[in-house]
Amino acid sequence: MDRIHSSCDTEVWEGDLPLPRETLLQKVRDVEGLVCLLTDRIDAELMNKAPRLRVISNYAVGFDNINLEEATRRGIIVGNTPDVLTETTADFTFALMLAAARRLLEGERNVKAGVWKTWGPMILQGQDVHGATLGIIGLGRIGTAVARRAQGFGMKTLYTNPTRRKSLESELGLHYRDFHTLLGESDFITIHVNLSPKTYHLIGKKELEKMKSTCILVNTSRGQVVDNMALYEALRNRRIAYAGLDVTDPEPIHINHPLLTLDNVIITPHIASASVATRTKMAMMAAENLIAGLKGELPPHPVNPEVLKNADA
Ligand code: DGY
């Protein structure tokens, strides 16, 4: 915030909850730059209300909350916060995998509720992570960082991706599989794709039916990639064993959502990148993207650099 305040006149929404839509639409009337969160929908309607807008700086690596095509068409540059959250998010993916596999939260709940009476051979038996087969859907930055960690756990790691990444295959000992084969062969499946019309409900009833009954599904990407109701049915019927979700659809998940009644799901509040160090780096990147954009320069992390290249031409 100091960096931004020293560069431009600023209005800050101090509320803990996102700006009500009407307030946001009103506030953007005269702005030239916008720093927004993934909870803010930045669409054509908003851009219509903000005729002076030149830069949108998203405090996130994902930018599915922004209508990028519309921004690009209007010559508005968009920035995001890649790379700095990769390792932190991969750490958290493993936290969910381990917690689900070893039934960590069930154990913790039992202890706190006084249910635990004695050590017992059958109590809360889970699954081993080491030596298991991990399937990674989406071998981008975060998927690759997860694959690196899987090496340390001695996992056999499969991946599926729109393009094969042969140098990573040999560097990390990865095995390429088509999407459906990966679903059937993996003990753990972790999702690392962007949300787009192509990935909306990528995992639904049909895909869950292909998974092993012992499979553990982890999602730290976007909630809409998984059909939550299909997942609920699959977990309830033990079609798959467990899920670890840092993201849901919607967010927050409704308190009466049936998923919350199950013991075999862990749901966290979209915190995979939430370490102090990473969130601080993301903030600095968002500030630098904004400031460069306001100056008419290419932000350090542009999503649609063609906007300024076209303007130069
Ligand atoms: C992102 O950056 O897209 C994450 O979901 C939040 O850090």
Properties at a glance:
single chain; 313 residues; alpha/beta; seven-stranded parallel β-sheet; three-stranded parallel β-sheet; 37% helix; globular; binds (2R)-2,3-dihydroxypropanoic acid
Low-confidence stretches: none
Query: Largest sheet at a glance?
Result: 7 strands, parallel
Globally, the shape reads globular
Radius of gyration from CA coordinates:
21 Å
Strand content: 5-15%
Number of helices: 13
Structural class: alpha/beta
The side-by-side strand order for the widest beta sheet comes to 6-5-4-7-8-9-10
User: What's the helical proportion of residues?
Assistant: 25-40%
Question: Got a strand count?
Answer: 10
The ligands found in this model are: (2R)-2,3-dihydroxypropanoic acid
Q: How many angstroms separate the termini?
A: 34 Å
- Kindly state the mean pLDDT as a whole number? 97
Helix/strand order: HHEHEHEHHEHEHEHEHEHEEHH
Q: Any overview of this molecule?
A:
It is a single chain. Helix content is 37%, strand content 12%. It is an alpha/beta fold and 313 residues long. Strand 1 (33-36), helix 3 (44-49) and strand 2 form a beta-alpha-beta unit. Helix 5 packs across helix 7. (2R)-2,3-dihydroxypropanoic acid (DGY) binds at residues 38, 60-62, 85, 273.
Brief summary of the model shown:
This protein has helices at residues 2-5, 21-27, 44-49, 68-73, 86-101, 104-112, 141-152, 166-172, 179-185, 205-210, 228-236, 276-294, 306-312; strands spanning 33-36, 55-58, 77-79, 133-137, 156-160, 174-176, 188-191, 216-219, 242-245, 265-267.
Write the layout of secondary structure elements.
Blueprint: H1 2-5, H2 21-27, E1 33-36, H3 44-49, E2 55-58, H4 68-73, E3 77-79, H5 86-101, H6 104-112, E4 133-137, H7 141-152, E5 156-160, H8 166-172, E6 174-176, H9 179-185, E7 188-191, H10 205-210, E8 216-219, H11 228-236, E9 242-245, E10 265-267, H12 276-294, H13 306-312
Parallel strand pairs: 1-2, 2-3, 4-5, 4-7, 5-6, 7-8, 8-9, 9-10
Helix pairs in contact: 5-7
Bound molecules: (2R)-2,3-dihydroxypropanoic acid.
